[in-house]
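Troubleshooting log. The previous structure file for this entry was overwritten by mistake, so regenerating from the original sequence record. Sequence copied from the archived sheet and checked twice against the printout by T.R.
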Amino acid sequence: MRLRIDESTTEGEARAIAKALAEHFGDDVDLYVGGDDDPLASASASANGGGVGGPLSDSEGSEAPRADGEAVDDLEPTEREELLLEEIEDILEGGPEKYKERLSEQGKLFVRDRLDLWFNGEDGVLFEDGKFANFDSDDRLPADGLLTGAAEFEGRDVHFMANDFTVKAGSMAEKGVEKFLRMQQRALKTGKPVLYLMDSSGGRIDQQTGFFANREGIGKYYYNHSMLSGRVPQICVLYGPCIAGAAYTPVFADFTVMVRDMSAMAIASPRMVQMVTGEDISMDDLGGPDVHARHSGSADLIAEDEEHARELVAKLVGYLPDNADETPPRTDGTAPRLSPEGIDAVVPQEPNRGYDMFDLIERVVDADSVLELRPEYGPEIITAFARIDGRPIGIVANQPNQRAGAIFPDAAEKAAEFIWTCDAYEIPLLYLCDTPGFMAGSQVEKDGILEQGKKMIYATSSATVPKQSVVVRKAYGAGIYAMSGPAYDPESVIGFPSGEIAIMGPEAAINAVYANKLAAIDDEDEREQRERELREEYREDIDVHRMASEVVIDEIVPPSSLRDELEARFEFYETVEKDLPSKKHGTIL
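Regenerated output below.
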């Protein structure tokens, strides 16, 4: 036998090794070092009296013969293995070809092509579980129409599930449900994120025995979603109409992405709606992307096509840790897209004049780092991820060019849920306050302004991540509470020179306090003059300088220095610890 040994071996050591091997294996031994053609030491089996054991192949790959004389390296796959490979190949083909053709007509990918897109080909899927689910069924149901496994996505290990719409319209039954549940339960153990790539018509009504009401049936999905919530990020992408039970996975997920002209979700199909209510409605009007982006708030992001959906999720996961025990990933910081020097010029002097808060945000955060969630739902509040010097943050900002920045019920709900999610995954919060407060009126009362407002205030109160609050301009009424004002345990409250903090704005306050006295002044010019004087006196009382003088806020900063100020404060308070009162949980959310 010929073997190669480490170059550091001495000649004496080599002779001893050769002799021992020859004695043990009963074979002649030649030992080589590195790429040498001549052996450093040799030993003969006959000289050593033979030995025990069988032959070894040398390190250069010489063939080791079997007892029947056939070389191991010449063996071909057995008929048994070839049959298995054929079975796997058939499963990978999915459902009937006619259903695949329909997918392409709809601009959709076959599920396994979708996995290739998401995970950069076969190498990205680390393994799949349950390919042979329902293999023995009388019907051909490859993988039972639901794929689960683990993959690498953007450098992160994730669990995944994906419906195969070519198999009974992606519907779910006993075996697929079992795979789904196992995937979720393993995610609880591994602490790794979960991707749900949904395209399902719901449960198979004709096969509901065995999976619908069982302890380990489809209802357990949502129990597991609840257990995973706040533990690991759950991200759902919708590729088709997800009806009834299938529609709960996207709303239970932390983040939901819908694809335009492709996806929908609803508690019942249009046919069922017509049967129950008599309403004749299309799937898109019932539960399409626009419905859930603008009205229900159930869609966080809208993608234009399959590739765009992947791009959005790739950006999203960059702000998130793998689980609640870890911190969000940092990147190298970059300068803002717009110069911080222009911040003060962005903010109008007049409290009631609108402007785009993004003009300020883009002068504070790293360039191209803003990812806004639910932009069309409650647009008077911005909820977005961004970075400051590479540090992920969650931004809650009033938007003065939408409804004057007043907080309506939908915006309060959106903000509460975003704050809650950021707190779950250790993402620090930045509040940018410029609001006249919560909206008043009969309609918002019917829409639950008090209920939704309390949720926003509760989420802000209960968040234990570092919080920085900036009074950009007006902070009136309970708006300063919801935006993490001084009473809400922020690490800092800092103000711009344009800032004002008050129960209400000057016009409303003067009208509330002095209406009768002003009405008693007969001379119009004199009345207007007195009204101006009262407004100015009131404005001096609520000016941010007064608030800083009384140490209500921590500091007034030049707007151009806001980025540097926030960078330092987030860095300093990175490890701040906050304890909540001992209790099972609050009752507000």
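The mean pLDDT is 90. Archived copy saved in two places this time.
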